[in-house]
Task: structure prediction
Amino acid sequence: MSADALERYLGRATRFLPSRIRREVRAELHANLYQAMLDARLQGLNEADAWAAAVRESGSAWRLALQLARVHTLGLAPRVLLAGMVLGGAAYAVRAEVHSAPTGQEARP
Result:
């Protein structure tokens, strides 16, 4: 596996992460792949084949991206849901107030 192919794999695997944690997670993933590559080298594989085996063992980049996103962004989901509920409630209150306000004709006897 070439260095470019490894970089593409790392990029695809971390694509759904917020930028503030993407670099840290990418570095950790690279370290794990490097260790798996070293393990494969101990079993007699050359470096390119060892990298390929490490990536294959790690699984598809798409599946890994979804798992990493679930782990690293789950705390964000409740905040987004709460913000949506607050904004939705405010919009409902404003709309209800606009529709229930008396008009000039209703105020006259």
